Amino acid sequence: MKQALLIIDMQEIFFDLPENALYGRDQLTKKVNQLIAQARTVDCPVIFIQHTSYTAGEDLYVDTPEWEIHHKLDRQSEDPVFRKTKWDTFYKTDLLTWLQNNQIEQIIFAGAQTEFCIDTSLRAAYSLGYQHNIVIQNGTSTLDSQVLRADQIIAHHENVWNKRFATVTPVEEVVFQPTTTS
């Protein structure tokens, strides 16, 4: 099964600004870099999603420092980067076309924010026919809400997703399939 690693919204705003600091952000960065390293050993595509605003003054305004992909991630120049303007990674982006053109059958999800862009994108992927996806256990993160702590939000969503929209898998148990050429 041909795979792609999809890293959503791991942008400087969640690392540089204390009021937007992701829960467990340092561990998340290590986990995502571990996934990237594993993916690269078998030439699995590593795709970055970058939330983008085109309205000056808004968070994540294009080309501002907080909009940039987190500098501690092992991103390489050949890694595709798709800019999105909504929570859904597929909405008005070329991601689906790219996945189809590259015959991707399984998406491995990690990134931010659990209850917004990850949840929306995971469900959209499922509805678009990607029904054998993996979400990395504690491989997504978010901020505390007025109702729940970030760790509770993550646990709740992993429970909802598992064996419905994806398989929630510890990073140590993810198996990247070698890319085969036909």
TrEMBL record:
<keyword id="KW-0378">Hydrolase</keyword>
<dbReference type="InterPro" id="IPR036380">
    <property type="entry name" value="Isochorismatase-like_sf"/>
</dbReference>
<dbReference type="InterPro" id="IPR050272">
    <property type="entry name" value="Isochorismatase-like_hydrls"/>
</dbReference>
<feature type="domain" description="Isochorismatase-like">
    <location>
        <begin position="4"/>
        <end position="146"/>
    </location>
</feature>
<dbReference type="InterPro" id="IPR000868">
    <property type="entry name" value="Isochorismatase-like_dom"/>
</dbReference>
<dbReference type="GO" id="GO:0016787">
    <property type="term" value="F:hydrolase activity"/>
</dbReference>
<comment type="similarity">
    <text>Belongs to the isochorismatase family.</text>
</comment>
<protein>
    <submittedName>
        <fullName>Cysteine hydrolase family protein</fullName>
        <ecNumber>3.-.-.-</ecNumber>
    </submittedName>
</protein>
<dbReference type="Pfam" id="PF00857">
    <property type="entry name" value="Isochorismatase"/>
</dbReference>
